[in-house]
Amino acid sequence: MTTLRLGLARGGLEIKQFLRSRESVIFTLFFPLLLLVIFGSVFDAEIAPGVSFTQYFAAGIIAAGLLTTGFQSLAIQIPMEREKGILKRLRGTPMPRTAYFIGKVVMVMAIGAAETVVLVATAAAFYDLPVPSTAEKWVTFGWVALLGISACTLCGIAFSSLARSGRGAPAIVTPVALVLQFISGVFFQYTTIPEWMRSVASLFPLKWMTQGMRSVFLPDSFAVREVGGAWQLGHVAIVLGVWVVLGLALCVFTFRWTDRG
What we know:
Layout: H1 2-20, H2 22-42, E1 46-48, E2 51-52, H3 53-83, H4 86-91, H5 97-126, H6 135-159, H7 169-183, H8 195-201, H9 205-217, H10 233-254
Antiparallel strand pairs: 1-2
C-alpha cells in the first residue's frame, strides 16, 4: 500500500510536470485535435452509405491519440529524464522503483482520458461522429481503449531504452509512430492500403485499436467493408492482450536507469 500511495503521489507530480510543459501539452493533446479539424474540414466525401471519411478518420484519430499519449510521449520523455540524471537520482532515493512506473501510468491514463473526451466531443459536435447508443458499444469502447493504452504505455517504456540520448529520442520515436498511423488505417481507409503494408500493420497494436474504435463509432453495416468482413473483436482483444504481456516483459528486461556508458 505504501508503494501504491507513493506511485499515486508520483502520478500527481507527473501530471503537473506534463501540464507545465507547453511542448508536451501542444503535441500530445492539441496535435491530434488539430489533425481532426484539418481532415474534418477538407475531406467530407462518403466512403460507404451513411459513413463519411471524416467519421472514419475520427475513429482512427481517437486510437492514434492513445498511441501518442502512451507510446510516443513516454518513449521520448523517459530518455530525456535519463539524460538529465533524474532516473539515476530517483533510483538512489528510498522510493520503490515500482512507484516511478505507477506514476507514469497514472499520468498516461489521466492525459489519455482527457484527450479522448476532447476528441470524441469535438468529432460528435462538429463532424457528425455518432456517439455510442448502447451499453455494449460503450463496454467495447472501454476495453479497447484500456487494453490499447496499456499496450502503448508498456511499449513506450520499453522503447525508451533504444534511444542513446534524450535529444535523439524524438528522431527515433516520431517516425515509428507516424509510419504506424499511415499503415494502420488512421489517415487512409485501411482496405485501400497495399496488402504488404496491412500485413506489417497487423503485427502491431494500432491497427487493432483503430478497428476496435471503428466498431464503436461506425454503423454495424460497415463491418463487411473491413478486410476480414467483420469487426473481429475477439482478434482485437487477443492481439492487444498479447502486446500488454509482451510490453511488460520487454520493460522488465530492457529498462535502463542510466545512459549507456
